[in-house]
Amino acid sequence: MSRALKPVSAGSPAVILAAYQQGAATRLTLQNMETTNLGNLNGMGEFGPRPLDGATAIITGASRGIGRAIALRLASDGAHVVVNYRSNAEAAQATVSTIESHGGLATPLQGDVSSSEDVERLFDDAEKINGGVDILVANAGLVVLAPLGELDEADVDRMIATNLKGTFLVMRQAARRLRDGGRVIAISGEATRSAPAGFGAAAGTKAAVEAMAVALSKEVGPRRITVNSVLPGVTPPERITPQMQPHVDAVVAATPLGRAGTPHDIADVVGFLASDDARWITGQTIVATGGAV
Ligand SMILES: NC(=O)c1ccc[n+]([C@@H]2O[C@H](COP(=O)([O-])OP(=O)(O)OC[C@H]3O[C@@H](n4cnc5c(N)ncnc54)[C@H](OP(=O)(O)O)[C@@H]3O)[C@@H](O)[C@H]2O)c1
Predict the structure, then answer these.
(1) How far apart are CA 173 and CA 116, in angstroms?
(2) What confidence category does residue 43 fall into, taking pLDDT thresholds of 50, 70 and 90?
(3) Cα 163 to Cα 40: distance, rounded to the nearest angstrom
(4) Which atom of ligand 1 is the closest one to the Cα of 263?
(5) Mean local confidence (pLDDT), 80-103
(6) What is the percent of the chain where pLDDT is above 70?
(7) Secondary-structure class of domain 13-288 per CATH
(8) Residues 6+ apart with CB under 8 A from 102
(9) 180-200 in b/e burial notation, b at 16+ Cβ within 10 A?
(10) What is the 206 CA–ligand 1 centroid distance (Å)?
(11) Residue having the nearest C-alpha atom to atom 15 of ligand 1
């Protein structure tokens, strides 16, 4: 991965806030992509090669939400992105089509991260694209919100299977198969710090993700592979529910930057960590919440 300058992002906070206030979720996503990533997707810029040209990146859970934004960002930086999904093939194909229509490289690959067979097949198929895998973004996640006294055991089992075991399975393959100098970026959540009411079990599974990332950073460091966790705060609007609205409102009120996060806010942090600029950062947790804690 070579170092290159990235075109300056557009899309001011005021514009983003106004779009949220109008409820223009879909337009906001496209607007952000077109103002922050479209220029990159058109190919080589005047500053030279893009940061991730020649790299292959697996992003788990990239059919929608934060994973989709990460796929757009890494594709705009030149990577061939594997758009992993579990069941929503249509959404994954839409992500791929968006990337391809702007000159980027993307392949949809189905696979349930909680299945060791699926994860092995995911890496097998990703390796066929360009002879190896350079970047893993362990993004697929499941959050069921309820006070601990009311949470179903089955929902806890599902969160453990997706968040904890699923992250272990993809990290295990990454440890065995990532090319030297690669990147592992795990998506956790700020709730591991603040543990709001209702987030207890979900935050517990995500705390395990962060612990595994630190251990993995020590295991693969000698091969110049960095491993870090990104901790988003509340990042609507793609899966906001009436149940979550009071929490979102409270978080926005307590956020110094005065709004909720967008998937692109998180994707840009991941883009940095995936680049050579972040070569000296490993075993860290990056909190991306607009200052809310
Ligand atoms: N949004 C937030 O406010 C927020 C805050 C903190 C942390 N996070 C974390 O950020 C990550 C992304 O969140 P999000 O809100 O963008 O998620 P989302 O919109 O619910 O999307 C989840 C993605 O993960 C995929 N997925 C779910 N289970 C899977 C499995 N077992 N195997 C493979 N793929 C699976 C889904 O695929 P299908 O489409 O096929 O179902 C989808 O692409 C998660 O780890 C989440 O915990 C989110």
Answers:
(1) 9
(2) very low
(3) 32
(4) 16
(5) 97
(6) 82
(7) alpha beta
(8) 37, 38, 41, 42, 76
(9) eebbbbbbbbbbbbeeeebbb
(10) 12
(11) 65
